[in-house]
Design goal:
18% strand
Length: 110
């Protein structure tokens, strides 16, 4: 990984740079799922999907419906393709990446 190579060369990365790298990774992951925006709040994660993309990739909607069916108190989907995940514990700077990646892995039809 590039992050490891940079760390080996220059030492530990500052937290800000580590978080920037995580955000860039999330952009790559979520852009492949047709996500227009991702907002990570203290107790909630919101994902807004592109309507055009979702209409073409019905398997993503099916994955979202399966998630909601399994945990209706945790997940919600609005008519404007806004998917919300209510967090049982507050998001912190260190765990936002893993939580968002877990959501992406759950809805990825691959």
């Amino acid at each position: 990984h590039a992050t490891e190579e940079i760390s080996d060369q220059f030492g530990r990365l500052p937290n800000e740079l580590e978080n920037l790298i995580k955000v860039l990774k999330l952009r790559i992951i979520f852009s492949a799922l047709g996500v227009k925006s991702l907002t990570i709040l203290k107790n909630k994660t919101n994902i807004v999907f592109s309507e055009e993309f979702i209409e073409q990739k019905r398997e993503i909607i099916e994955s979202l419906v399966q998630l909601i069916t399994r945990s209706p108190n945790k997940y919600q989907l609005s008519q404007d393709y806004k998917f919300s995940c209510l967090n049982s514990k507050p998001n912190e700077s260190g765990n936002f990446f893993q939580q968002a990646k877990d959501i992406a892995d759950s809805i990825n039809p691959c």
